[in-house]
Amino acid sequence: MSALRKNFAIALMIAMSGTMAHAEPKLAAKDIVIVHGALVDGSGWRAVYDILSKDGFHVTIVQEPLTGLTEDIEATKRAIDQQKGPVVLVGHSYGGSVITDAGADPKVSALVYVAALQPDAGEASAQLLSKFAAPNDAMRKATNRATPDKYFFIPPARFHETYAADLSASDAQFLADSQQQLAEKALGAPVSVAAWRTKPNYAILTTQDRVVSPQLQRWMYQRSGAKVTEVSASHAVFFSQPAAVARVIEAAAEQAN
Fold first, then answer.
1. Per DSSP, what are the bridge partners of residue 149?
2. pLDDT tens profile 221-249
3. DSSP assignment of 68-96, as one string?
4. I need a labelling partner for 241 at 20 to 30 A (CA). Which of 43, 100, 171, 211 fits?
């Protein structure tokens, strides 16, 4: 090789290495799967969806039937199966119990709990809720539909103060009127595995929550060693402060491996 060609090759390698050194780092996870909580559906997550999508993530929102924990886990697993992976799995409220079990899927690289229940293996949602009474005792005020299978719901007249105190009256009414009832048996079913024991987990603790006690949230997230972000918000934080929720999800994606 002539000296000229050799010098050109060296210069080309240096230029390429400089380009590589300044390249933008790739996010470890680009697929986000969101599991909504009880008493709502996925429609309230639109603002979070828009933020994440604009930032380059592929977002899937699971529409759980809320007819039982097994059925809700299966619906979530079907959504995970559609992803290329790795996946950041997000759960709100009762959805935290769902992702705790479904998150054992090898595609899932990190878990995000948003004002969510975080049971250990063998624990049920109702078991956790009984540890600390929520301010305003929202679950006591919830009404059972008079059917053999019994479904929980919050009466629309109580929804604003109980679930979504930091929303406007019209936004809270929308959530109340699109409310999805939860089968009582779903709260009593224990999870079979706790994915947070083996995977990175993040949590948003809602300090003004009247459904899942902030005290209970703090206890659960300390037990799991979650990276906690406290937000002064109601249980409807995904609707009232979507940017704060999206930031935590994106932080989980950036650090997932």
1. none
2. 999 999 999 999 999 999 999 999 999 99
3. -HHHHHHHHHHHHHTS-S-EEEEEETTHH
4. 100
Task: Measure the CA angle with vertex 122, ends 118 and 123; round to 5°.
Answer: 40
Helix 95-102 and helix 69-81: axis angle, to 10°? Answer: 60
> With the C-alpha atoms ordered 158, 161, 162, 166, is the resulting torsion angle positive or negative?
positive
Tokens of 175: 């959530």
Contact 189, 163 (CB under 8 A): no
Nearest residue to 91 (alpha-carbon basis) of 208, 238, 206: 238
The SS3 call for residue 136 is helix
**CA dihedral sign, ordered 183, 35, 241, 251:** positive
How long is the chain? 257
User: What percent of the chain shows pLDDT beyond 90?
Assistant: 75
**In the predicted structure, residue 174 carries a pLDDT above the cut 80:** yes
Q: What spatial distance separates the first Cα and last Cα of the chain, rounded to whole Å?
A: 43
pLDDT band at 141 (very low <50, low <70, confident <90, very high): low
How far apart CA 133 and CA 4 sit, in angstroms, is 78
Amino acid at residue number 121: A
- Cβ 105 vs Cβ 74: under 8 Å: no
Q: Are 209 and 163 in contact (CB under 8 A)?
A: no
Pairing mode, if any, of strands 31-35 and 58-62?
Answer: parallel
pLDDT digits (tens, 9 = 90+) for 7-54: 544 444 444 444 434 344 444 679 999 999 999 999 999 999 999 999
What 3-state class would DSSP assign to 151? Answer: strand
